[in-house]
Amino acid sequence: MIRSFIAGRRDGAAAATRALVAGALVSALALTGGISWGSAVAAPAPTAAANSAAPSPAVVPAQTLPSNPSIRFSAPRKIGNGWTATRTISVGDWDGNGFSDLMLIASDGRLLLYAATARERFAPPRQIGQGWGGAVSVQGGVDWNRDGALDLLARFTDGRLVLYPGNGSGGFLAARRIGTGWLAMRTWTPVQQSVSGYPAVVATDKTGVMHVYPTNGSGGFLSRVTLGGGWLPMRQVVGAGDWDKNSRSDLLVIDADARLRLYAASSGATSFSMTQIGSGWSAFPRIFATQLDARAQTIWAVRSDGALYAYPATYSGPNAAFAPWPAVPAQWDDTDWETFPTTRSVVALTFDGGASDAGVASILSTLDRYDATASFFVTGQFARSYPAAVRAMAAAGFPVGNHSNTHPYFTQLTREAIRLELARTEAAIWPLTGKTSMPYFRFPYGDRNAAVIDIVNGFGYVPFRWTVDTLGWKGTSGGITASMVCQRVLSTAKPGQIVLMHVGANPDDGTTLDATALPCIIAGLRAKGYGFVAVDALLD
Questions:
Q1: CA 350 to CA 466: how far, in whole Å?
Q2: Between 415-433 and 387-395, two packed helices, what is the crossing angle to 10 degrees?
Q3: Which is it for strands 88-92 and 375-378: parallel, antiparallel or unpaired?
């Protein structure tokens, strides 16, 4: 099963709130969601007749540059008129419906969203912000903070670079400045995967030198990497997605001779192989690209007269079925594992982390004292609330899996909502552990069916259920004791058993029965001849 997933995170509480940022255009933009689009300012018509005439790059003779036979363009289609080159923004799938959207900054500074209803077809515009006229340039299509939602980056007249995080449903979270001095750059473009494997800005300065500004996986910049000079003749340099499927973002360039070049990034993203994929692009002062899937791209091109065209492209070269995140191996697919498939006398101790970390220190101390291994599944909310606890779990060498962001019932969620739950947890965990949470996942409440198991598998996760629930989470107020917790495990012990416990305290009585019972559980299982494995043993 090969599917793709954009991973990341965002505070769950904040994700429910759209930002209303008022004030000066540079320091804050009013980003208001849900306002219907008015008629005070003319905006582009969202659609036009399919396959309208457009200037074809093929009419210009091929130049003496390496060609790329793996890339083919379909007939272009006119989208509409009135699209100002400097004010049109490609934002990817902004509203999460599976189609790539566009935005436009109107002449009065309103930000208009053109939500796609199908590939390259758009609904009438909807205003989602105001005060954007002060931005020198705005770019999108990248999940900058890796929360599973696409974001905008805006450069202003004083050189500030400001991040406007999307909330995954068509609106914004709170904006924040992420840099200064960016007017020194002649061109700049965000890319999803660069030197560090995380998002970056690729920029050329006014002397023609290209630099990469990589990030650390949570939106902050690392040290600049200088790639080299010679870029002054290039009219445009834009992020192009991963055309050659090596998990690094490539660049599209229009050179001084109006040739369209693809610069495919190396695996280290510090060098590029260049091929020509078109010519005759002088009529377009603005192009940008969106990646639809592993085989399909669209180049959007704004002509000098404001006409917008879509140039669909397909890739047929090596790795054409590449998925940015690993596929679940077939032998672990379509199953929520309740026991390990083994005849060995081993048990997997697993702990869920949700509302409280009260038992973490005791659990880690017991595991260390008894030299036993275990696995942890935490929610994104837990990781953000108790980062020291998650770091301690990982530092002790235990796998830390994904338990969703907000602990919802997955059978009640849409596919997109599931994606966001997984993505926001993944990016909350990764900065704390230094590792991906993939492929380890546990459904909240154990709520699953075949459909959601398939969705979770498609996003790179193997779900782990349990053989026995200790019920320690019920606490003494629920009629449970530490002795009962221990006996529930010992009386049901069998090869491959997965034990469900929790790291938190009962909210009514404050007890941490699983932590209290853990020494009894470990000693009792060892007396029965059992050893311990973590969930990663299933995949070995």
A1: 9
A2: 70
A3: unpaired
* Separation CA 318–CA 244 (nearest Å): 7
Say if CB 109 and CB 134 are below 8 A apart: yes
> How many residues does this entry show for the chain?
540
* Residue 67 token pair: 């060609």
Residues 6+ apart with CB under 8 A from 342: 495, 496
**Phi and psi at residue 203, in whole multiples of 5°?**
-135, 150
Terminal-residue alpha carbon distance, the chain: 19
Q: How far is residue 530's CA from residue 97's CA, in Å, rounded to a whole number?
A: 48
Contact 472, 501 (CB under 8 A): yes
47-67 CB burial, b ≥16 within 10 A, e <16: bbeeeeebbebeebeeeeeee
244 backbone dihedrals φ, ψ, rounded to 5°: -100, 5
Q: pTM here?
A: 0.57
Which pLDDT tens digits describe the chain residue by residue (540 residues)?
A: 222 222 222 222 222 222 222 222 222 222 222 222 222 223 333 333 233 333 333 333 334 467 778 788 888 889 989 998 889 999 887 876 667 889 999 999 999 999 988 777 899 999 999 999 999 999 998 888 777 678 999 999 999 999 999 887 778 889 999 999 999 999 999 988 787 678 899 999 999 999 999 988 777 888 999 988 889 989 999 988 777 666 678 888 999 999 999 888 877 666 778 888 888 999 999 998 876 544 557 888 999 999 999 888 877 765 433 333 456 777 888 899 999 999 999 999 999 999 899 999 999 999 999 999 999 999 999 998 899 999 999 999 999 999 999 999 999 998 878 887 887 788 788 778 878 888 999 999 999 999 999 989 888 899 999 999 999 999 999 999 999 999 999 999 999 999 999 999 999 999 999 999 999 999 999 999 999 999 988 876
